[in-house]
Design a protein that fits this description.
Length: about 240
Amino acid sequence: MLTIEDLHVEVAGSPILKGVNLEIKEGETHVLLGPNGGGKTTLLMSIMGLPRYKVTRGKIYFKGEDITNLPPNERAKLGIGIMFQKPPSIRGVKLYQIGEVSLRGKEDGDRIKSYAELLNLINHIDRDLNYGFSGGELKRSELFQLLCQKPDLVLLDEPESGVDLDNISLIGTVINELLNKEDKVKSRKSSGIIVTHTGYILEYVNADKGHVLMDGKIICDGSPRDLFEEVKKHGYGRCTECL
Ligand SMILES: Nc1ncnc2c1ncn2[C@@H]1O[C@H](COP(=O)(O)OP(=O)(O)O)[C@@H](O)[C@H]1O
Ligand SMILES: [Mg+2]
């Protein structure tokens, strides 16, 4: 599904990613942990192809195709979708309109409504995209758009941050739907990367592999739960021993 080779990325002239290698197979969900400023968001933005994130070395392959230089809209069409950590708000674009665009011609008012209902956003679909939305509403709005888009590779940047406990299981349910978790492992088509700080989401979503990203490099791989237990006990301080 995704292969990243020796990826180096600069933001505003500063090197942020310094040689990331990562392979995600069809149907796999990976968790990305790491201290603030380690480069997790930069990695997801680079996979999505946002122009501020300049690849200076290395390659990104999606389903075997070199996408390193493709613009984000082309990557979205190929089947990559992202839930931003800090989503933009856009005046003049309604939430339902972005739903229609995300459905890409499979326009279906009923489907838009049912997704909005599932995410408790039915009263928001005529509002400007994300404008004035609370923290939890932003996260649900992002997931609404992903449900409409149904990407094959789902990039989730801190899906549970700012979400109250009542809504976190809903967030988990929708992520499981996006990642086809109800299907058997072998027939599962969608893959995902989940960035999480708190790890709460791992109580609702099963992940296959975990990685620690620190100082622009993946310095550790393991089972998501084991890595998270270690980090909870010792923080990321000990991770520097592996650097
Ligand atoms: N627009 C920008 N200009 C300058 N530095 C940036 C910009 N965006 C991100 N960075 C820097 O890149 C580093 C990695 O940030 P980020 O990828 O957001 O980390 P994480 O998501 O792991 O917390 C940080 O030091 C951050 O300040
Ligand atoms: Mg981040």
